[in-house]
């Protein structure tokens, strides 16, 4: 007899739902592409590598300066289910964003199980605040800092948009111009019940505390919430429920389903101005963009000025 673990899913099916690689033929090809594209980007563009934002070796970031002053900044938080990958695999979106007029930063953070998820969240938040405080020194326009994250990185980026962690009197919505959240997990309760939790060790209380969708502030910056078409039903549900929850709290929520992309290659559109996602990123950064070349069948919805005063 197969017992239901979460919703309509037994253990085997719930594990599959939170295994994005179940929707692709060869995960290693995407991971290799991250590495090779990022290495090429670091040879083509100036980069200030391993800038410390904290005292631990893992607390550093890579910064790609813009070609002009007072530039917008895209801050990228990598995925890997909080236990894999690194900032060195995350340079590739800078390749076209920097020539387009933006600066780019890839945040490094400690990985599970060596670091608890609470610690990882704190590290990403401190990295974001370091970039805010040093914006002028970096040639960045402090009013055009946009966060982006993929998968677990989208979770961490959204955690950085919650209230209560910045210096008193400062809210993320006051200093973060926007966010781009790709294929994220925003409610960790089902994740807690899968194989993903083995290195994390979350109990029910921790999963609730670290689920940003349960703690959204009354005010969020403009959001792009995107996922690939080739995703599991649970990733699609997480995406949909965040859009619904965020819409009354944000001046603009751009809901984007890219039918020809999956959980792993959606990031390749971040710096492509001819894609819907790339165009949305440039719009968040306040940079000019070319007309979109959306593939037929892609689903795009925008929610503006709902529930805001």
Automatic annotation (TrEMBL):
Q: Where is the BD-FAE-like domain?
A: 68-160
Q: Which domain of life is it from?
A: Bacteria
Q: What keywords sit in the KW lines?
A: Hydrolase
Q: Does the keyword Transferase apply?
A: no
Note whether Transit peptide occurs among the keywords: no
Its Gene Ontology molecular function terms? hydrolase activity
Query: Which Pfam family, giving just one, matches this sequence?
Result: BD-FAE
Transmembrane stretches in the record are none
Q: What is this protein called?
A: BD-FAE-like domain-containing protein
Please spell out the taxonomic lineage of the organism that makes this protein.
Bacteria, Bacillati, Actinomycetota, Actinomycetes, Kitasatosporales
